[in-house]
Amino acid sequence: MSDRQHHILIVDDDAQIRRMLRRCFEDEGYRVSEAMGQAGVDAALATGVDLITLDLNLDGTDGLSIARAIRQNWDLPIIMITGKGDMIDRIVGLEIGADDYIAKPFHLREVLARVRSVLRRTQPRPAPLATASASAPAKAARVSFDGFVLDLDRRDLRGPDGEIRLTSGEFDLLALFARHPHRVLSRDQIMDLLKGHDWSPNDRSIDNQVARLRKLIEPDARAPRLLKTVRGAGYSFTPQSLQS
Q1: What average pLDDT does the chain have?
Q2: Is the pTM above the cut of 0.85?
């Protein structure tokens, strides 16, 4: 997945659902459009869309018909979100080509996780990070930054007040950031690069590890200077000084 802002189209005739999903997606940095029927869908698609959430039970319109029309002309991921619990509708939706299916009522975190998963499967793979700047300390045994020393061989971190105990996952993530300073890493890139380590990273585990690292190395975890969030893109390690 690229680091650009992805565009999500919400197709639902319930204004409250649209408003709730829009707020959820925009808070995560996505660009959002809304539609209630085929005309609105066509107008939004003309502007470029990366993923569609589609209610099957639209007032006066069959969501399955909209899905069929989209599939005839566009190769876009579709997540069907509906109040219908009928298994037949689900089977037909998947046969049409829906990439996922969520029944109302739903949890916003689940919808967001499904959106990220579908985008990850359907977007182009990120460019290898081996092309990063040659100044990145890719093979350094030690990395010093802003009063901290990260020993990659001994797997420990020392700060101004002494040793800082890190879990295996916290160390692996900090070492990854230290090898690619001042570069925005998306969650997908981080997960790809951490495969095979002692932990199994996912969207939430990465966010949680970053939050814990901030508490350990930031003067103020609520206003991070070292591990910054780049909205809609990922995280960036931005030390003022860095030596390897």
Answers
A1: 82
A2: no
Q: How confident is the model at residue 74 (pLDDT cuts 50, 70, 90)?
A: confident
CATH numbers and ranges of domains, the chain: 7-122 (3.40.50.2300), 129-243 (1.10.10.10)
What DSSP string runs through the chain?
Answer: --SSPPEEEEE-S-HHHHHHHHHHHHHTT-EEEEESSHHHHHHHHTT--SEEEE-SEETTEEHHHHHHHHHHH----EEEEES---HHHHHHHHHHT-SEEEESS--HHHHHHHHHHHHHHHSPPPPPGGGS-TTS-SS-SEEEETTEEEETTTTEEEETTEEE---HHHHHHHHHHHHSTT-EE-HHHHHHHHTTSSS---HHHHHHHHHHHHHHH-S-TTS-SSEEEETTTEEEE--S-EE-
- Bond preceding residue 105 cis, omega within 30 of 0: yes
What is the spatial distance between Cα 243 and Cα 49, in angstroms, rounded to a whole number? Answer: 42
